[in-house]
Amino acid sequence: MKVNISRVAFSIFGIDIMWYAIIICFGIFMGMLVASENSHLRKIKKDTVSDLLLYALPLSVIGARIYYVIFEWESYKGNFLSMINIREGGLAIYGAVITAIIVVFFFSKYKKIDCRDLLDICAPGLILGQSIGRWGNFINQEAHGYETTFPISVLIDGKRYHATFLYESVGNFLIFLFLMKYIRKYQKKKGQVVLLYAILYGIVRFFVEGLRTDSLMFLGFRVSQILSLVAVIVGSIIFVINRKYGKDI
Q1: Pairing of strands 15-18, 217-218
Q2: 226 alpha-carbon distance from chain centroid
Q3: What pTM was estimated for this model as a whole?
Q4: Residue 2 reports pLDDT greater than 60
Q5: How do strand 217-218 and strand 221-222 relate by DSSP bridges?
Q6: What is the mean pLDDT of residues 35-47?
């Protein structure tokens, strides 16, 4: 694959609208449609999903930025304007997901909805949005892996790199298909779908992150790999416990 697409889709009144933003917004829209479609499975109104998005979207962007800045502190220290300028890039999906889960928790309390039901119907849409969003990295020529001779690679400036955006996008899409099947055919306990999301995405991200050249680091370790490992281990333990003692749907 060769990257030869301009990062700018078009301009409005001198403001460049980037393909990355368009792709991310499309991913969010598709994720919302999936969550809305799943809402009837837990007797939740479709409007509830769009109401949730009004809170979760802006706060998740903030969370994604805060997460990124924390682990790139040396690059932003003392420069508040750069910290908040997301047009320069620097959003971490794990920061967005963690923030979204917190928002869902409080939103469900306010709406008097079981948090597990809301997380379950949203999880497939979230992973689909992540799958679509990774193509924004392709346009931006970022989040790629090390140089490689692997046939499936991305060509940038005459060199071939692991197409980690593609690996993760395909992996996430397969998770999406599995979760959509599971929530309709096999789920017995509340919370199982979101736990499977954590486990399966953790596995995909752990291996993909190991190939990337732009990982956020902490004490010499890749932060996303640490979180992925935690998600897989903790998610698996809770899934087993939930399968035996959890509340039936």
Answers
A1: unpaired
A2: 16
A3: 0.92
A4: no
A5: antiparallel
A6: 95
